[in-house]
UniProtKB/TrEMBL annotation:
Keywords: Membrane, Signal, Transmembrane, Transmembrane helix. This is Bacterial extracellular solute-binding protein. Residues 1-21 form the signal peptide. The keyword Cell division does not apply. SUPFAM superfamilies: Periplasmic binding protein-like II. It comes from Seminavis robusta. Pfam families: SBP_bac_8 (PF13416). The chain crosses the membrane at residues 546-568, 588-609. Coiled coil: none annotated. InterPro entries: Bact_solute-bd_prot1, SBP.
Length: 619
């Protein structure tokens, strides 16, 4: 479940780490002295009136089971929590034993070795049943630099939710592309259906909430075709923003969605909660299309929902055009460009590139690497308990209409969570549950997965996207102050895209200039994508340099000695006979060059790759 109270970075966010650090300094000696055998301290997010990932229930049950108590320190500011976790890793503080947080912070923490490497743990502890984790979870969300650092407690991705009955009534099909999405929304927007006026689309676009997620969802279908290692917003070879026509087209698609959207879209947010228009408008029967996290499915099955047996789930749309990173232009999909494992071919529209966005990734747990081994084990034991198949199933499949204070917000992250019969047994409509489960499987198996950024400054980039996009949509949809002419309007979108890209560059440069940053942002990005290779060190040949000089000297000395011998013996029979082999002597050097040249050429290419900054890291 995605948190619905993300807000902008404000002064309280900047000051929060200091206040927590002051509070925590008084705990350091106590934390270091306590072996952790009776109490586990966990830093996490504060979601009032809501038992996030079943933390409170599981702490109570675990205490009754083991006698070990779990104490949570909760932070109400999402960005403040992220910053505090980074700060503690940087200063190697033992204030907390573990963390339950967003997976996106892992890159900032890992550069300080702030969390325990769990790679061996997930392989050897049978009760974790690691292979039961959904493929995208265990291979991407929980991983950084090809190592497991987090235990999943939730599984988050974006899905398309649609009214099956309305599409059938209007002779429409489930949208396969973003162009089809807004066209379907346009076809039904303002129409009457069963006594209700329809909104074609309902996406919460209030500034300060999920706008950066919505943009990433659409953009990635234009920019990423070959999996997460390719990157969707930045080129992983040099951090060049993938903006230009792709970002401008993304802004256009979002503008058209909002044009045929719910009237309260700009006053409400998305995600879960009572103020999510994505949920409310769909549940009251006035919305035809939305995309959101799994919250929409569970809310749609509540007793007061008007769409319990009418709302279905599908993968989010794709695109028939993709971004050429060399020309910075959008090009039509071909089999070569879009025909990979995640590509789809349709007779009427051709090839479609579909990206699966694991937005937010799902709340996850980590163990502090700066505590003693006893406390590490105690903390890990509790987190393994929460993550276990039995406990996680109870947290995931709650009966429709469960009171808010008992709701966990956990979306499926194990294969064992996806049995439609288990959902039907809890009161979910069987066909809808089947639709939901199959879509989750397809999404998390998609090789073209899209991940949130996991490097220093990623939060600032998200805020920048939100600000620029909100400003443009306000002018285009609310104020209607932009030119009506489409060509002029597209130029305006390109200006916004260029402004975003420039601000991204400034943020990255600023992050790299910070003295506390141990790893450049580019390297953090490559580590997160699993493609990083250490820069080539030409000093690694230093150990054989002396041997090389000795061999060269020996060859030269032998050559000089041989030349002198020939000069002295030039009138002898041996030398005269050798002259008759002159023709053969002309052939032998050619054959020698032919044999020696290819390996020398390959060695030169190898050296060139490693002299070009970052090129070797990508290839």
């Amino acid at each position: 479940m995605m948190v619905s109270t993300l807000t902008k970075l404000v002064w309280t966010t900047l000051l929060l780490p200091w206040s927590l650090a002051d509070h925590g300094r008084g705990m350091v000696e106590e934390a270091e002295a306590d072996d952790g055998s009776n109490q586990i301290r966990i830093l996490t997010f504060d979601y009032p009136g809501f038992d996030l990932v079943g933390m409170e229930k599981n702490a109570k049950n675990y205490f009754e089971k083991t006698g070990v108590s779990v104490v949570y320190e909760k932070v109400a500011d999402f960005f403040g929590l992220q910053e505090e976790i980074r700060s503690q890793a940087e200063n190697r503080l033992p204030l907390y034993d573990g963390y339950i947080c967003a997976p996106s912070v892992v890159g900032s923490v890992a550069q300080y070795e702030g969390w325990v490497d769990l790679t061996e743990t997930v392989r050897t502890r049978d009760e974790i049943e690691w292979q039961d984790m959904l493929l995208g979870i265990r291979e991407t969300v929980a991983v950084w630099d090809n190592k497991v650092y987090m235990l999943p407690l939730d599984g988050d991705a974006h899905f398309l939710f649609y009214r099956e009955d309305i599409l059938q009534a209007f002779g429409l099909t489930v949208p396969r592309t973003w162009d089809e999405y807004w066209q379907v929304a346009k076809a039904v927007h303002g129409q009457e259906f069963e006594g209700k006026t329809l909104s074609g689309s309902c996406i919460g676009r209030q500034e300060g909430f999920q706008n950066s997620y919505w943009l990433t969802l659409v953009l990635s279908s234009y920019t990423q075709t070959r999996g997460p290692s390719q990157g969707h917003l930045f080129d992983p070879t040099d951090m060049t923003p993938l903006a230009g026509e792709a970002l401008a087209e993304t802004i256009k698609m979002i503008e058209l969605q909002a044009t045929y959207g719910h009237p309260l879209e700009f006053e409400m947010h998305g995600g879960g909660g009572e103020h999510s228009v994505n949920l409310q408008a769909m549940n009251n029967g006035t919305c035809v299309l939305t995309y959101n996290w799994g919250d929409s499915f569970k809310a749609g099955q509540s007793p007061d929902s008007a769409v319990k047996d009418k709302m279905k789930v599908a993968q989010t749309p794709g695109s028939t055009r993709v971004y050429n990173r060399m020309t910075k232009k959008l090009e039509p999909c071909t089999e070569d460009l879009c025909g990979g494992p995640s590509g789809e071919f349709h007779e009427d529209i051709g090839w479609v590139n579909r990206a699966a966005y694991l937005a937010f990734g799902g709340w996850s747990a980590a163990v502090n690497n700066n505590i003693n081994d006893v406390r590490k084990k105690q903390t890990l034991d509790f987190l393994v308990y929460m993550n276990s198949p039995k406990v996680s199933l109870e947290d995931t499949i709650l009966a429709p209409g469960t009171p808010a204070n008992q709701t966990t917000g956990v979306d499926p992250y194990r294969s064992s969570h996806l049995d439609p019969a288990l959902w039907a047994a809890q009161g979910y409509e069987k066909a809808s549950a089947q639709s939901y489960a199959s879509t989750i499987k397809e999404t998390f198996r998609n090789p073209n997965l899209v991940l949130d950024h996991r490097f220093s400054g990623a939060d600032r980039i998200a805020v920048s996207i939100d600000s620029h996009l909100s400003n443009y949509l306000s002018r285009a949809v609310i104020e209607k102050s932009l030119p009506v002419d489409e060509e002029a309007r597209q130029l305006e979108r390109l200006k916004v895209a260029d402004a975003m890209a420039e601000e991204f560059r400034e943020i990255i440069a600023d992050e790299d200039s910070k003295p506390e940053s141990l790893i450049p942002v580019l390297s953090q990005y490559q580590l997160a994508l699993g493609i990083y290779k250490p820069p080539y060190d030409h000093k690694d040949i230093g150990g054989i340099r002396v041997v090389g000089w000795m061999l060269a000297a020996t060859v030269i000395a032998c050559s000089v000695a041989f030349a002198l011998w020939v000069a002295v013996k030039r009138e002898t029979r041996v030398i005269k006979v050798s002259a008759e082999m002159h023709a053969l002597n002309n052939v032998l050097p050619f054959l020698g060059r032919l044999i020696i040249a290819p390996p020398i050429f390959l060695l030169c290419c190898h050296g060139f790759l490693h002299r070009v900054p970052n090129l070797a890291s990508y290839y």
